[in-house]
UniProtKB/TrEMBL annotation:
Keywords: Membrane, Transmembrane, Transmembrane helix, Transport. InterPro entries: MFS, MFS_dom, MFS_spinster-like, MFS_trans_sf. The keyword Transmembrane helix applies. Residues 1-397 form the Major facilitator superfamily (MFS) profile domain. It is a multi-pass membrane protein. This is Putative major facilitator superfamily transporter. GO terms for molecular function: transmembrane transporter activity. It is found in: Membrane. The chain crosses the membrane at residues 36-60, 67-85, 127-148, 154-172, 209-235, 247-268, 280-297, 303-327, 367-389. The keyword tRNA-binding does not apply.
Length: 399
C-alpha cells in the first residue's frame, strides 16, 4: 500500500502544479482578469485549509481506506470538473472540490502509513512526502511539454483516470485498517476553542505539539516565499539569464526534495532506534541549519554555480525537517487522534505560512526592493526556528 499511497500523493501535487502552470493559457481561454486568477488560486487554498481539520476529525472514525479513497476520488472529480469548465464558476467549483479531496489525502495519508508500517516508519514517511517535490516537478514539466500539443481541457484530464483507479482500489479493499477513534473525540467547536485544544495535552505533549506547529509554520513561510519569488530574485537581483535559471530552479527543487525527504526519513529511523524516548532529534536541527546556510549562500553568492549549490542545500534542509516534525505529531499518545493534529498542523502552517509570505514579499519589495524583502523574509524565520527548537530541546532535557 506504500506504493499506492506514494503515487496517489504524487497525483495530489501534480494536480496542484499542473493547474497553476496552465493558468497563463486559461487567462486568454476563459478571459480571466488578474484579480480572478488570484481568487482562483486562493479558492483551492481556502478549501484545503477548511477541509484539513475536518478531515482529521472525521477520518479516524471511519474506515481509513474508504475515507482516503473518497478523498482521492473527490480531487479527481474536481480536476474533471475543471477540464469540462465552460464558465469561470465551474473552474472555481473544480478547484474547491480538488482542495477538499487533497486535504483528506494530506491529512489521513501520513496517519494511515504510520499505523500500517511496523518498522522504518521514518523512511516510509519520507517516501510519502517525497511526492511533494516529485509531483510538483512532474506537473510543471507536463504542462510545458503538452501545452503546444494538446488543449488545456485535455491536459487537465491526465490525472483523472489514474486518480479514479487509485481511489477505487482503496474504497474496494476488504482487508485493512479499521477506524481508530480517539479516546476523547473532539468536535469542531473544541478545535476552534484553542485553549480547550491545548488543554487536552500534558505539559510535555503540549510542548511537542507547539514546537511542531511553530517550526512547520516558519519553514512553510520560507518555502512559500522561495517558491513564489526565488526565480524573480535570481533574474532581477542576480541578473542570471531567464531560460537558464528557470530550468535550474526546477531541478534544484526536485533534487533537494529527494535528498531532504529520503534523508530525513532514514536519519529519523536511526535516531528513534538510538534514542527511543526523546522526541527531539538532531535531523530537525540539521535541516534548519542547512536551510539557513543555503539561503545565506544564495544571498551572498554572485555566480550561478554558487547560488545553485546554496539553493540545493537550502531546499534539502527545508524538506528534511518535515518528516521528523510530522513524526512528533503522529507519535503523541494523547486524547486527540494523530489525524486531528496533522489536520490542525496543515491549517496553521499554511494559513500563517505560504499563504502570507508571497504577498508579504511583494508588498515589502515595493518599499525596500526585492533584495531586502527576500533577505528579511527568508533569514529571520529560519533563525527564529533554530532558536525555538534549541530552546524547547534544552528545556526538555533539563526536566
Amino acid at each position: 500500500m506504500l506504493i499506492l499511497l506514494f503515487f496517489s500523493n504524487c497525483l495530489n501535487y501534480l494536480d496542484r502544479q499542473l493547474f497553476l502552470s496552465l493558468l497563463p493559457a486559461m487567462k486568454s481561454l476563459y478571459q480571466l482578469s488578474d484579480p480572478v486568477i488570484g481568487l482562483l488560486s486562493s479558492s483551492f487554498t481556502l478549501a484545503y485549509l477548511v477541509a484539513a481539520p475536518l478531515a482529521g476529525l472525521w477520518g479516524m472514525r471511519l474506515s481509513m481506506e474508504k475515507f482516503l479513497g473518497s478523498g482521492i476520488l473527490l480531487f479527481s472529480v474536481g480536476m474533471l470538473v475543471s477540464s469540462m469548465a465552460e464558465h469561470q464558476w465551474m473552474l472555481f467549483g473544480g478547484r474547491a472540490l480538488t482542495g477538499f479531496g487533497e486535504a483528506v489525502l494530506s491529512t489521513m495519508g501520513p496517519v494511515y502509513l504510520y499505523n500500517l508500517a511496523s518498522s522504518s516508519k521514518g523512511a516510509k514517511l519520507g517516501w510519502f512526502y517525497l511526492a511533494i517535490p516529485l509531483g510538483s516537478a512532474l506537473g510543471f514539466v507536463l504542462a510545458g511539454i503538452l501545452i503546444s500539443k494538446m488543449t488545456v481541457q485535455h491536459i487537465l484530464l491526465i490525472p483523472v483516470l489514474p486518480g479514479t483507479l487509485f481511489a477505487l482500489i482503496f474504497i474496494l479493499r476488504k482487508e485493512g485498517l479499521a477506524a481508530i477513534p480517539s479516546p476523547d473525540p473532539f468536535s469542531l467547536r473544541d478545535l476552534l476553542a484553542w485553549r480547550r485544544f491545548l488543554a487536552s495535552f500534558s505539559k510535555s505533549d503540549k510542548d511537542m505539539v507547539l514546537i511542531s506547529f511553530e517550526i512547520q509554520t516558519l519553514v512553510t513561510f520560507v518555502l512559500g516565499g522561495m517558491a513564489a519569488w526565488m526565480t524573480f530574485y535570481f533574474i532581477r537581483v542576480k541578473m542570471f539569464p531567464v531560460s537558464t535559471i528557470e530550468s535550474l530552479t526546477g531541478g534544484m527543487l526536485l533534487l533537494g526534495g529527494i535528498v531532504g525527504m529520503l534523508g530525513g526519513g532514514k536519519l529519523l529511523d536511526r535516531e528513534i532506534r538510538n534514542h527511543p524516548d526523546s522526541p527531539f532529534h538532531w535531523p530537525t536541527l540539521l535541516g534548519l541549519c542547512s536551510a539557513l546556510s543555503g539561503v545565506l549562500i544564495v544571498l551572498a553568492g554572485n555566480s550561478l554555480v554558487v547560488c545553485c549549490f546554496g539553493l540545493l542545500l537550502g531546499i534539502s534542509g527545508i524538506f528534511l525537517v518535515f518528516v521528523p516534525l510530522n513524526w512528533i505529531l503522529l507519535s503523541r499518545n494523547t486524547s486527540l487522534s494523530p489525524a486531528v493534529l496533522i489536520g490542525m498542523s496543515l491549517l496553521v502552517s499554511h494559513l500563517l505560512g505560504d499563504l502570507l509570505s508571497p504577498s508579504l514579499i511583494g508588498e515589502m519589495s515595493q518599499y525596500w526592493g526585492l533584495s531586502v524583502a527576500v533577505e528579511i523574509t527568508l533569514v529571520i524565520p529560519l533563525v527564529l526556528a533554530i532558536i525555538l527548537y534549541t530552546g524547547y530541546a534544552r528545556r526538555f532535557r533539563s526536566v
